[in-house]
Amino acid sequence: MLSRRSVLASIATTALGGSLPRDATAEAFLTEDGLYRQPWFLESFLELGPDLDEATGRGKRFAVMWELKGCPYCKETHLVNLAKPEIEAFVKERFEILQLNIIGSREVTDFDGEKLSEKRIAEKYGIRFTPTFQFFSDQSMGLAGKKPRDREVVRTQGYLQPQDFLKLFTFVAEKAYERGSLRDYLRSSN
After folding, report:
1. Triad 34, 67, 119: Cα angle to 5°
2. Cα dihedral 126, 128, 130, 133 in deg (nearest 10)
3. What is the H or E stretch that residue 8 is in?
4. What is the pLDDT of residues 29-54, one digit of tens each?
5. Quick one: 99 exposed, middle or buried, by C-beta within 10 A (0-12, 13-18, 19+)?
6. What is the pTM of this model?
7. How far apart are CA 61 and CA 170, in angstroms?
8. How many Cβ atoms sit within 10 Å of the Cβ of residue 142?
9. E strand or H helix at 123, and its extent?
């Protein structure tokens, strides 16, 4: 069946000259725009509503990772946290991660249909630090009518040590945000 994902994978494969790394042990690679990228990150038309719906349809949660070229903590997230097999497996199995550049120029369609550059959508959501992870509800219905920050269920800014990074993704996967804060969750699980 033809899907947005298969079309994007085909385009990426052709652009890379033949093969796109996809196995679970593939390492992060440096892209043309200077960002590290996991080979299993979401290939997207940069339409947040459809990306969220497709992730939900696959039984996964949708998250955005904001990065910046030269950000040492972004690099650390890729080369330390996501390089740990147990963390990579957990995140890859349960989440679709869309990588965006905080100063990028690619056009992104927000949940409300507004089309903005990555830089402008970062401003709209008040993203000021990298890395920042935004986690959204598992349903796009109703998000368009909410203020940007109210669309998120969890946001983290800055680098998290591997054990807390995994706990963050566990917190979202378990919907523990419905019962309390991430801070309380991290304290109770130490």
Report:
1. 100
2. -20
3. helix 4-15
4. 999 999 999 999 999 999 999 999 99
5. buried
6. 0.85
7. 11
8. 10
9. helix 118-125
Boundaries of every domain in the chain: 26-188
Query: Residue 20 in contact with residue 12, Cβ under 8 Å?
Result: yes
Q: Look at residue 8 and tell me whether its pLDDT is greater than 60.
A: no
pLDDT digit string (tens) for 74-112? Answer: 999 999 999 999 999 999 999 999 999 999 999 999 999
Joined together, the tokens standing for residue 39 give 């080979």
CATH fold of the domain at 26-188: Glutaredoxin (3.40.30)
**Burial classification of residue 92, based on how many CB atoms lie within 10 Å of its CB (0-12 exposed, 13-18 middle, 19 or more buried):** middle
Decide: helix, strand or coil at residue 62. Answer: strand
Closest CA to 58 of 151, 129, 138: 138
The answer to whether the beta carbons of residues 79 and 44 sit under 8 Å apart is no
Sheet strands side by side (includes 95-101):
95-101, 61-67, 132-136, 152-157
